[in-house]
């Protein structure tokens, strides 16, 4: 098992972070991670991305959701659908959290429900999956090592996506084109290539991915800009150009709407841009 480990120290806290990419689940899961550390700030912010995050509180006090709508407290496991704005939580000072970063197709297969139902929402996993959610939490807490916990999480996801209804090929292809283009592919081109009407493309995309194609493209572009900001010092005008925005004011407006902060404010924060340790490439 190829696990990457990193010690992270920042003004917001100190964590030991582990990351694993299960090859057998590559179409469903982007990565599985675990964070174990001390939070030095009482609140944490997560920002929109094309992924869906499933989290398990392995050890620690409850988390409290402040923004957006959803269950107020999370003691065990919860899921954040594709978000339309920032997610703000009150966090315990010390916690061990396991995360499964699901691709939209993986979340659709795992939850077996229209993804629009969890778009913009953070929900207790128990409310979405019942006993299966409790089983995941119990097994993760019983695991005595990071490697064992990752195997438990991968097996749990694998059992539930096997044989599940898949995203339709034309919708999966459209989502992939949006992701590969960094949100730059014209939606009209997707309609032309798939033969779907505007109404049908939007409806099926919302059901299987979570949001309409145009909004998904905006979120992908925003995530790309955030990754550039995280990579190192760079002029904001260059970030806007590299991420595919018309200009810096356009990027600034998108950042305010999707994150509640300006790009400059993100630079000042000097912390991982989604509130969790960064993905390790």
What keyword list fits this structure?
281 residues; alpha+beta; Jelly Rolls; seven-stranded antiparallel β-sheet; 42% helix; globular; disordered C terminus
* Multimeric status of the protein: single chain
CATH topology of the domain at 3-161: Jelly Rolls
Helical content (DSSP H or I, runs of 4+): 40-55%
SSE sequence, one letter per element: EEEEEEEEEEHEHHHHHHHHHH
Proportion of beta-strand residues: 15-25%
Instruction: Name the CATH homologous superfamily of the domain at 3-161.
Output: Jelly Rolls
Shape: globular
Tell me the distance between the termini.
16 Å
State the low-pLDDT regions, or none. 271-281
User: Which whole number gives the mean pLDDT?
Assistant: 92
CATH architecture of the domain at 3-161: Sandwich
Instruction: Using the CA coordinates, give the radius of gyration.
Output: 18 Å
Find the structural class using helix and strand composition.
alpha+beta
Number of strands: 11
Q: Sheet with the most strands?
A: 7 strands, antiparallel
Biggest sheet strand line-up:
1-2-3-10-5-8-11
Reading off the top of the CATH hierarchy, the class of the domain at 3-161 is best stated as Mainly Beta
The number of helical elements comes to 11
Protein model, in words:
- Helix 5 packs parallel to helix 8 (213-231).
- Helices cover 42% and strands 24% of the residues.
- The chain is globular, with a radius of gyration of 18 Å.
- The longest helix has 19 residues, at 213-231.
- The protein has a domain at 3-161: Jelly Rolls, CATH 2.60.120.10.
- A hairpin with a 5-residue loop joins strand 6 and strand 7.
- It has 281 residues and is an alpha+beta fold.
- The chain has helices at 104-111, 125-129, 131-142, 146-161, 169-180, 187-194, 198-208, 213-231, 236-243, 248-259, 263-269; strands at 3-10, 13-20, 29-39, 43-46, 52-60, 63-67, 73-74, 77-80, 87-90, 94-102, 122-124.
- The strands form 2 sheets. It has a 7-stranded antiparallel sheet.
- The chain contains 11 helices and 11 strands.
